[in-house]
Design goal:
The protein contains 5 helices and 10 strands. With 185 residues, it is α+β, with helices and mostly antiparallel strands. It starts with a helix and ends in a 7-residue tail after the last strand. Keywords: Signal.
């Protein structure tokens, strides 16, 4: 029975990898090195657990609510409900300006003028038009790295995460590293 379960998990992982498509994310060869590998999960006994992600931005946006934009940054693709925002989803500050993601920050994330505290008290989610107006111009993710262990491990041992950062992320998946990023003004 155990062999069948391992085989089934293996087939599932291969199916996910085979279906993986890389979308245009608006990052050009001039400004980034992007790795979009499907190894985003830690395979456990019979379940898959997402790996932890750390990121940096081109400004001090750790208190600002992130949303996901289209690759051309003209449309909002995803945003949280106010009830989804609470202290447990705010990023954790780490070494060298990195943040431990607890909300789903990605390559196409933008940051709003709303702080976590402000957004969480809204009675309803803002309209797309209003939310678009609240996006901080030029606020982007500059570095995005997938760690070799899940978020629970990263939260329990931030010293280990800081060591990985200081050592240049050995054994990690560097998904985004922008080479030329204009400073946030």
């Amino acid at each position: 029975m155990k062999k069948i379960a391992i085989f089934a998990v293996g087939i599932l992982v291969m199916a996910v990898a085979a279906c993986h498509t890389q979308k245009d994310n608006g990052v050009t060869a001039e400004n980034a090195v992007v790795s979009a590998r499907p190894e985003s999960m830690v395979v456990g006994h019979s379940s898959m657990i997402p790996k932890a992600v750390v990121y940096r931005t081109n400004g001090p946006f750790y208190e600002n609510v992130p949303i996901i934009m289209s690759a051309n940054r003209k449309e909002i693709v995803s945003f949280p409900a106010p009830s989804d925002i609470h202290p447990d989803v705010a990023p954790v500050e780490l070494a060298e300006g990195y943040l431990l993601d607890r909300h789903g920050v990605g390559i196409n994330s933008a940051f709003t003028r709303y702080t976590y505290d402000e957004y969480s008290t809204l009675p309803v989610a803002p309209s797309l038009r209003h939310l678009r107006q609240m996006v901080i111009p030029g606020a982007i993710v500059t570095d995005l790295v997938r760690l070799p262990f899940p978020l629970t491990t990263a939260l329990a041992d931030t010293a280990r995460v800081n060591r990985l950062i200081r050592q240049g992320f050995p054994g990690c998946d560097v998904m985004l590293e922008r080479k030329a990023v204009a400073p946030f003004l």
